[in-house]
Sequence to fold (84 residues):
Amino acid sequence: MNGYKKILLVTLMALPFAALEAGDAAAQSADCSAAVQRVLAQTNGQLLSVKVAKNGGQPVCKITVLAPDASGKRRRKMTVNARP
Fold:
């Protein structure tokens, strides 16, 4: 088998696994929507980003918000870990 056919074969074999991982990540990130709503309500902040990570084998939502400080004049960036 020449080099191009090997590369094509390996690529075609890897596609189903890549699709499975993308689907799994999408399903996990969808689970973070309730956690995001809770954090936004608690901090009165603006959502910057959401990432799904594993902590001890359990999914954890890493939610980064821009929230007002105690004086209410400045906003600070903070990351909150929440369970989905």
Q: What stands out?
A: The first helix runs from residue 3 to 30.
